Structure formats: structure tokens, C-alpha cells
Amino acid sequence: MYDIQSKSDLQSGATLVVSIPEEDLDKKALYTILADSPGFLLPFRQRAIDGKVEFTYQIGNRSKLAYLSRSRSPGEYADLWSGVLQPLLDCGDWFLKPYAFVLKQEYLYCDRDGKEICFLYIPSTRDCSDYQGLKDMITEIAKQNQVADVMLENQVWRALQDFKPNEFLQMLRANRAGGASAGAYQPASPQSAPAAPAYQAPSAPIASAPPSPPPPASAAYQAPSAPAAAAPPPPAPAPAPVSAPPRLSDDMEIRITPGGKAPQEEKAKKGLFGPKKEKEEKPKPEPKEKPQKEQKEKGGLFGRKKEAPAQDQPIIQGAAAAPAYQPAQPAAAPYYPPVSDADDGATQLEIRQTGVTGFRYAGSQDHPRTIEVTAAEGGIFTIGRFDPSVGKKQSDFEFDKATKAISRRHAVVERGAGGYSLVDLNSSAGTYVNGQKLTPNAPCLLESGSRVSFGNAGADYVWEG
């Protein structure tokens, strides 16, 4: 609805400027904000120029919410959505309208910790957004911010089909309190497992035992079944071997039975570790000494040490063949020539030949040689330093944890239709392009050959894209 311009200077920093016709001004909302501005709005100042009212919004040390997209815990995930949607529900207390907010993710800002989210609000009587814009913004945030709880994320995507902010927040809060998750985890399928014994009612067929008496009656007619009675005696000896294991005790060995003499005698001969006596009988002292003497005479335990000098030659040849694999390593060196200030043009030419879009190291210290930017059009590529306290990756490219003058979230590269832009995320040591320090949160267009320094500790690169 309105044109939003981005500006920056050293005094005011990064700003957004919006102009609206004076007849569209919502004076009631404007006066209320000036008297008591809520924390979820970007601070602004206004002035009247030629029948229009110009609003200048101060970004300050805030960064775009898109720059802080990451995987979040269920608690952080609920806080994110509360910061995005709750202002739209509470704005009526300041006589604000939900659709006077600029509902686009690129105009959502938050502090360095990512906790307080601020909106760009235009106090106009005309709406600058609509329901579809709200739904598109929520969908985009859901794509870029994941949650560790897969079940919760599925509930969020189902809620987006028929999106209602109030019901959406109630679902998240109930899940955070444990109510929704508990109900979700009640897929009583495991609880129905105990009910399975009830299904063992097929014990009814066991009641068919009464029909079984007829078979014994038929057995009565078979008088020759008497020999079948002899069958019980064979099972009787069966329990005897079962009791064999306990006979390993001393008490059982003393009790000798006629049927158990043979096994007891074998145990007495063999013992618990039977084969040991056989091993003692087999080895003879004489054969052991003889081979040792012969081996000593021959020059070793393996009796072939005399041939060792002959074998040394192939071993030496094998060692000489090993260097054949080493030439492959130095071949990688030509791809990473150092960049010198004296021969700047030649270095840039070599960089163009690589075909890599990103940053190429131009210093002499131990830093990554290249930073390849892999952002699609309309996307971003974040650069920072690994934080061991977090324990997981937070940026697309991260310097080592011991790298000096690099912040955890240092800078971001945006890829637009006009090319690539570099944005400093209010880093502690700053970001420099061709020696000029960037204004935090203000984009700077990158050109091929631009020199970029992340901080002031030697992380100097050349941009090629």
C-alpha cells in the first residue's frame, strides 16, 4: 500500500521511511502511541511535508527476525509465536488496528537475544495488510523456525490450514503447560496392550475337554494299550539327567548310585577343567627344547632370519613406493594462492577462474581460505562464530570458537534481484567494506573485488560473485 524506503547514516543508523497522505492519518492511534508507546512497535518520529506525513522508524541495534531463524526448543518456540501474535491481539488497547501493521517477515525486528519482537506500524486509517498477508507471514516464519518436538510442529501446520491467532496461541500454551502434549501422547494403543489378555478368552476351546473323554473310551477298547503303560517308565529316567547338573557339587559326588558310576568316574578323571591333564601329557620337554635350539642356531624363533636380508630389499622398495601417493597433496596448493596487496589484479583474476561465489581469504593468519555463499535469490547466508555453550550450529558459516573479534552472529549476506548485500548484525568489533565500517543492520551492496573485514583481527577477505 505504501512505499517503504531503507536509509542509513552514521548519526541515526539504519532507518525506514514511510510517507502517507495527511488525510489518511489515524490521529487517535498516533496520539495514543506518542503518549504511551508499546514495546512491540519500532520507535519513530514524524513530520508533515507538503500535505504528507513522513514517519522515520529507528532500527537501532535490532536485527531482522529472519536473521535469527533456527531450531528452537518447545519453550522458545512458544515464546516466538507469542511475540509475533500477541501484539495483534492486544493492539486494541492503544486504539491500533491489526491490519495497520506491516505483516511481512522482512519488517519484523527483534533484539540481539531474539526475545522482544518489534513491528513496523503505520498509523493510517487505511489497511496496509490483510488476512492472506498475515497467513503468508506466519507460514514463512514456520518454515524458517523449527521445533525439536515433531508432534508440536505437526499441530502447528494443521492449525495453519484454518489460521486463527487466538486459538493458535491457546494451543501452544496448552502444549507448553503439558496439557496438549499429554493428550497427544495418549495414543492409548500401548494401554490397550494390557487388554490383550482379555482376548485370551479363546480359553473357551479348552472347555472342549469334555469331548476329549470319548478318545480314552476308544483307548479302552484297545486292550493292547497295556504296553503303552510301559511308556511312563522311559520318562522316569529323563528327570535323572536333568538332575545331573547339581551333581557337580561335592555332596552329590560322594553319593554314588549304580546308574551314575560311569559319569562320576569320568569327572574324577577329567575334573571341572577336564582337558588340562591331557595337555600336560601331550607336551614333552624334549621336543620343546629341540626346536628352540634349532631355531637359535638358525637365528630366530621363526627359523628364517638368515633370509631376512633378502627380504629387506622388497621392504625398502615398498617404502620407496609410498611417496607415489604424496604428490596428490601438494596439487591442492595452487588452488589457494595468497593474496598480496602488490598484485591485486592478478589475484582477482585467479579468483574468477575458480567460479566460487563468496569470500576469498586475503590475509596471512590461520583463517578459513574461502567462505562460499550458497544463498538462493531472495535468501540469506549468515556468518558468525561457533559457541560451545550452545553446542550446535547457529549460522550458515561459523569461524572457530577461538577466533578473535568475531561475534556469534556477526554478519549476513542477502541475495536480491540486484545482487548481494552485506549486513552487519551489530557485531562487537564491526564489519568493514573497503576500509569503511558498516552501519549495523544497514545493507551494503557488494561488488566484485570488494575487500571485506570481519572484525579487526585479521579476518580479511575479497568478495567475488
Topology:
Layout (H helix, E strand, L loop, with lengths): L3 E6 L3 E9 L5 H9 L8 E6 L2 E7 L4 E2 L6 E2 L1 H17 L18 E2 L6 E2 L12 H14 L1 E2 L2 H10 L5 H13 L1 H6 L4 H4 L21 H8 L4 H4 L9 H4 L7 H5 L6 H10 L4 H7 L3 H14 L9 H14 L22 H11 L3 E4 L8 E3 L7 E6 L11 E3 L11 E6 L2 E6 L6 E3 L2 E2 L6 E2 L5 E4 L5 E5 L1
Parallel strand pairs: 6-9, 12-13
Antiparallel strand pairs: 1-2, 2-4, 3-4, 5-7, 7-8, 10-11, 10-20, 12-14, 14-15, 15-18, 16-17, 16-19, 19-20
Helix pairs in contact: 2-5
Please explain how this structure is put together.
The longest helix is centred in the first third of the chain and has 17 residues. Among the domains are: 182 residues, Transferase(Phosphotransferase), domain 1; 127 residues, Tumour Suppressor Smad4 (Sandwich), CATH 2.60.200.20. The chain contains 16 helices and 20 strands. It has 465 residues and is of the alpha+beta class. The two termini are 34 Å apart. About 32% of the residues have low confidence. The strands form five sheets. The protein has a six-stranded antiparallel β-sheet with strand order 11-10-20-19-16-17, with helices on one face. Strands 13-12-14-15-18 form a five-stranded mixed β-sheet, with no helix packed on it. Helix 2 runs antiparallel to helix 5. A hairpin with a 2-residue loop joins strand 16 and strand 17.
Write the CATH fold name of the domain at 1-182.
Answer: Transferase(Phosphotransferase), domain 1
Count of DSSP strands: 20
* Integer average pLDDT: 74
Shape: globular
Beta fraction = 15-25%
